[in-house]
Amino acid sequence: MTIDDIRKLREETGVGVMDARKALEESKGDIKKAGVWLKKNAVAKALKKADRTTGDGAIFCYVHQTGKVSAMVKLGCETDFVARTDDFQKLGKELAMQVASMSPKDVDEFYGQDWIRDNKRNIKQLVDEVIAKVGENVKVIEFTRMAI
Question: Scanning 73, 82, 90, 106, which has the fewest C-beta atoms within 10 Å of its C-beta?
Answer without folding.
Answer: 106
